[in-house]
Specification:
This protein has about 150 residues and is an alpha/beta fold. The protein has one domain: 3-Layer(aba) Sandwich (Rossmann fold). The chain is about 45% helix and about 15% strand. The two termini are about 40 Å apart. About 25% of the residues are buried.
Length: about 150
């Protein structure tokens, strides 16, 4: 340590270690929809805003991805899918180690009972198609902590 340094050697080493640590993986959005065009369009819309997305064509594939990929910070799912619908997927997520994962439902075909069931499963929001992309982007950014 020279006379002009304000940090001790130990402090300098600690600072260097922190500065050299790799960044945490970006929070990703998992989009689940059995309609390929719909999920790809959503991924493209979010991607244009710098949000990294993964997609799954079924509830089963989504559950496998959630189990193996801890960088997923938000789930966006369609409600009507076969054989595992959106509400079934959400119930299974809520019973898993990823129970606290924020979830947004998107549906073109929903009724009041579906909305009530979704709210009982603590979803962030229930958006009807056609989607208000500005609202979706706002919700996604908020849930991923990208909004100040």
């Amino acid at each position: 340590m020279s006379d002009h340094d304000i940090l001790s050697d130990a402090e300098r080493e600690a600072l260097s270690a922190v500065m050299l640590e790799p960044d945490l993986p970006a929070q990703r959005v998992l989009i689940v929809d059995d309609d390929r065009e719909a999920r790809e369009l959503l991924a493209e819309i979010l991607g244009l805003d710098g949000i990294h997305c993964l997609t799954a064509a079924s509830g089963k594939a989504a559950l496998q991805m959630l189990e193996s990929n801890k960088s997923i910070g938000l789930l966006v799912t369609d409600l009507r899918m076969a054989p595992c619908g959106g509400l079934d997927l959400i119930r299974r997520v809520r019973e898993s180690e990823r129970a606290a994962l924020p979830i947004i439902i998107i549906s073109g075909d929903a009724d009041v009972r579906d909305a009530i069931a979704a709210m009982h499963l603590s979803v962030v929001d229930f958006l009807l198609k056609p989607i208000d992309t500005d609202k979706l982007l706002c919700l996604v950014k908020h849930e991923l902590g990208l909004v100040l």
